[in-house]
Design a protein that fits this description.
Elements (H helix, E strand, L loop, with lengths): L10 H25 L7 H34 L3 H24 L3 H7 L1 H21 L3 H12 L7
Helix pairs in contact: 1-5, 1-6, 2-3, 2-6, 3-5, 5-6
């Protein structure tokens, strides 16, 4: 379990780091919504969405990409930058089929309409990887990832 980031060592530091970064990302999403007078989702919806983003999205993706794939790629590719970029590409690519289906678009239409989003997804992997590597803990990237995704849905659309 420790090889994929489930250890007690540096757990508190990892949680503190992710809490600080999560607060910043939530504020980035919260302030514009409050300033424009948008209405919050119901507490029950916010709670169920947070559980969804924490368990189903963030925890699963972090275990798979940071805990398993990234650590194994480091063992196969000796240049860390190349390993990170390869896994970033994999992380970005993994999001395409679901997002294509959700948007009801074919591959090329989705890529051309969402190129910037894909670049951001590529970049988020690099940030999540840094959070994982900082303390060799899955906690920081999972917590930050969950709050990042969840904070996009604080308000009624």
């Amino acid at each position: 379990m420790e090889s994929i980031g489930f250890g007690k060592r540096n757990l508190i530091k990892s949680i503190i780091l992710s809490t600080i970064l999560s607060t910043i990302i939530v504020l980035i999403n919260l302030i514009p919504g409050l300033m424009s007078g948008r209405q919050f989702q119901s507490l029950s919806r916010l709670g169920s969405q947070f559980l969804y983003y924490f368990v189903i999205i963030a925890l699963v993706e972090e275990i798979v990409f940071r805990g398993f794939i990234q650590t194994r790629i480091y063992g196969m590719i000796k240049k860390p930058v190349v390993a990170i970029l390869l896994t970033s590409f994999m992380f970005m690519s993994m999001h395409i089929p679901f997002q294509m289906g959700a948007a009801h678009m074919d591959f090329f239409t989705y890529i051309s309409n969402n190129f910037v989003t894909l670049i951001f997804t590529f970049g988020w992997h690099i940030i999540f990887n840094y959070l994982y590597a900082k303390y060799n803990s899955i906690a920081a990237p999972t917590i930050f990832h969950a709050f990042m995704d969840w904070s996009n849905y604080l308000f009624i659309r």
